Amino acid sequence: MSKKLVLLLALLTVTTAAFAQQGGPQGTPQEQAACRPDVVKYCKPLLASNTPSTFSILACLQASREQISKACRAVLESHGQ
């Protein structure tokens, strides 16, 4: 898994207090915009936890690959996922 993808997925946890304490968002604004709605829609239970891991969000997006937007799928694919 590429470091850039890990950083991108870490940014998707921005709604949690734990992430806010770790630092600001990562990834390009375009990548963030492409995947944020899919994370909120398909990975909502993870966001409810205090510390969703980057890997759990990635696993969620991969498990929902057929449902996620083409834009988010393209972000994953561009990072070898």
Structure overview:
By secondary structure, the chain is an all-alpha fold. The protein is 65% helix and 0% strand. It has six helices and no strands. Helix 1 packs across helix 5 and helix 3 crosses helix 6. The longest helix has 14 residues. The radius of gyration is 11 Å and the shape is globular. About 16% of the residues have low confidence.
State the share of residues found in helices, binned by percent.
55-70%
The ordered H/E elements are HHHHHH
Distance between the termini: 7 Å
Total number of strands? 0
Q: Given the C-alpha coordinates, what overall shape results?
A: globular
Structural class: mainly alpha
**Biggest β-sheet, characterized?**
none
Mean pLDDT over all positions: 76
Radius of gyration: 11 Å
**Uncertain stretches:** 13-25
Contiguous helical run count:
6
Sheet-strand content, in percent, reads: under 5%
SSE layout:
Layout: H1 3-11, H2 17-22, H3 29-42, H4 44-48, H5 54-63, H6 70-78
Helix pairs in contact: 1-5, 3-6
Task: Give short descriptive properties of this protein.
single chain, 81 residues, mainly alpha, 6 helices, 0% strand, globular
Summarize the structure.
By secondary structure, the chain is mainly α. Helices cover 65% and strands 0% of the residues.
